[in-house]
Amino acid sequence: MEQDAFKELVSFEIERFVQEDESNRLELLDNSQIYQKSLVGFVSGDDSIFLQLKTVIGKFHLTPREALTKICQVPRDSSIGVISYILPISQATRDQNASMADKPSERWAHTRLFGQQFNDKLQLHVVAFLEQQGFVACAPDLEKSIFKQIMDKKVGWASTWSQRHVAYAAGLGTFGLSDGLITPVGKAHRIGSVVVNQQLDSLPDRSEDIHANCTYFQTGGCMACARRCPAGAITENGHDKNKCGEFVFSQTDYIRETYGINMYACGLCQTGVPCERGIPVKKDDE
Question: Taking Cα atoms as reference points, which of 177, 188, 286 lies closest to residue 239?
């Protein structure tokens, strides 16, 4: 399929699903939408950045070609492309979480649980939709045979398929001091991706500066995310994954007892900060 037609088809179907599927709602609260309008990006599965990730993250990180060929039968010379999307968390949920000082809000906790369930459902829907169109596709982080969480000596907790790094490869954003991906729709979001046997070109204007959207790395100012972190896991030296993880998982009892669901969450560094809703500009820092 011609690339522009493919991109239009997939982007339309993702957004249609986001707007119409009933699982994109906080059913146990006010039945409002979990996610706002999606942001979709595309990148060649053979982009050299995926080989670079084997150095940045670890040799265990899969390239799109490795992921698809391990799951599906495709010829070795098949074109490989990656679809990545951003699901911006609703403004009502962001606002509620921004009002919290050291605990996740109720809407945020529900979004972490039911929003990820929707994200998984959307990835599977995109795979099925593409297969109906005659393509071969897979959602790597939903494939138990290839997706693994790993404690690596160099980078700490990592996985065989990093949604944030794939989204960066697709030109959807760059990283902040907290390691969150700062996108045109902010960094309060969830990310999904699908690999498909479709030729897709990479964006020629993808930023080589992996911190291009972060005020701290560009000017030395801001650090709002560090001030918002109740665990002290964000400093000038970056994001301490272990310290962050310990705090996030420690919230499970509070969420269960207070909100009645079994889930861990935090998200304080993603809300109440200049990059919450978009790429920050200088006046936001001031």
Answer: 177
